[in-house]
Amino acid sequence: MAHETLLVIDDELLIRRSIARRLQAAGYEVVEAEDGRSGLAEAAAGIDLAIVDFRLPDIDGIQVLTQLKQSYPDIIVILLTAYASVDTAVQAMKLGAYHFANKPFDLEALVVMVEQALETTRLRREVRRLHQSQAAPYRLDHLVGDAREMREFKALLARIAASPASTVLLTGESGTGKDLTAKILHYTSSRASKPFVNITCSALPETLLESELFGYERGAFTDARQQKRGLFEQADGGTVFLDEIGEMTPPLQAKILRFLEEKAFRRVGGSADIRVDVRVVAATNRTLEDEVSAGRFREDLFYRLNVLPLRLPPLRAHLEDVEALVRFYIDTFNREFKKNIAGISPAALTLLRSHSWPGNVRELRNVVERAMLLATGDLLEPIDFPMAHARSGTQGFQLPADGVVLEQVERDLVRQALDRVDWNRTRAAKLLGLNRDQINYRIEKFKLQQ
User: How far apart are CA 349 and CA 376, in angstroms?
Assistant: First the structure.
């Protein structure tokens, strides 16, 4: 049974009643009006679709259509007329009419038209609902923290999100939340209804990264059996997040620079320029000025990216936010793990506040997740956190008297973690407090093989 409410506006009683009764038989709620102004008054109570006669005794159907669309953009309007003309039909469609039907009309065909129109509305509402649920975790208040550094950062982030800037550079240490910041920039901007696409520049070789970003034409290379649209095309109107842009090779840096300057690119194997409107958010934990000095990063690209720099503060710069972050993560993991941890003890909180947090917010999240999984009481206690064991000497690596080769220790620990979980890289990364990209980097660095 349908739940939508429909409005029929027609000054001819017989026609109006015939349409209303047939739609009621189809399961719809129907209200009637004999002229345009009373129809607009009925619409104010809430309707989903209006069937409007073009010639009314007070204002015409085009005026009713215009006012309905201005006040209630989601209402579908079907215009009926016995005096059709091409110009009038074109005008009606430009103003947002769903259909322009001629009298006399077939009632059954009109019901089918109504059903199709309402299905379009349902799909549009579902897309909007899904988009809102997708964007919900990326509001500005999901950047937890009220220290001065975080207040200043969030204020600047809000201004940049609201600006028309097409390029933003996120910098900061690993684990400070650049990925979350990029999504907040997108979902709190005017581009929020368009796509957000994310690519990690270090995760793909140069040739594959180029084809992912720009797409390719059929026959551009051996396996290019059909044309492929790249991420810049897919994100038209939205945001492309280039994570770890400092890892990008110089030839690809040149192509990114051309795109940023001209808003145009060519697919791999293509000869025609393609123009799109995207905001590029680039992120790096490297110091790009040093990379420029070393010749590994183009100076002109750095200056093009650095128009609106946004540096994420390390956690050690706002340790007063540790308590708020811990409580946020406790709430998060209580829902995820179906647990009921009430909070954290003062002693445990003191322990966390005294830690230097080289892995920043990501490290804090990981240790709270571990504590939540292992905790047996109602509160998280110092014993639930690894830094307590390291301080007491009951666990943790003990430096031999004759020292170690640090790189060899790191290599052995990565190998042990991978072997322990049968080379599941995600689980191995978690054992070491790393993310997947970081462990992939170390596997390549140490040339480890299964």
Answer: 17
Residue type, 258: R
Count Cβ atoms below 10 Å from residue 282 Cβ, excluding itself.
27
Contact 393, 358 (CB under 8 A): no
Residue 9: CB partners within 8 Å, gap ≥ 6?
16, 32, 33, 34, 35, 36, 39, 50, 51, 52, 53, 56, 61, 64
Tell me: the pLDDT tens digits for 146-172?
999 999 999 999 999 999 988 999 999
The residue with tokens 């009951």 is 394
Q: What is the pLDDT of residue 254?
A: 94
Close Cβ partners of 398 (under 8 Å, ≥ 6 residues apart): none
What pLDDT, on the 0 to 100 scale, is given for residue 393? Answer: 46
Q: Over the range 3-15, which residues count as b (16 or more CB within 10 Å of their CB) and which as e?
A: ebbbbbbbeeeeb
Domain range 139-311, CATH architecture: 3-Layer(aba) Sandwich (3.40)
Asked if omega into 104 is within 30° of 0 (cis), the reply is yes
The CATH class, in words, for 315-392 is mainly alpha
Q: Are 312 and 184 in contact (CB under 8 A)?
A: no
Which residues lie closer than 8 Å to 278 by C-beta, 6 or more apart? 166, 232, 235, 236, 237, 238, 239, 240
Instruction: Kindly indicate whether the domain formed by 5-133 is annotated with CATH number 3.40.605.10.
Output: no
Q: Over the Cα atoms of the chain, what is R_g?
A: 30
Task: Spell out the residues 6+ positions from residue 234 whose beta carbon is closer than 8 angstroms to its own.
Answer: 195, 197
Matching CATH topology for 315-392 and 406-445? no
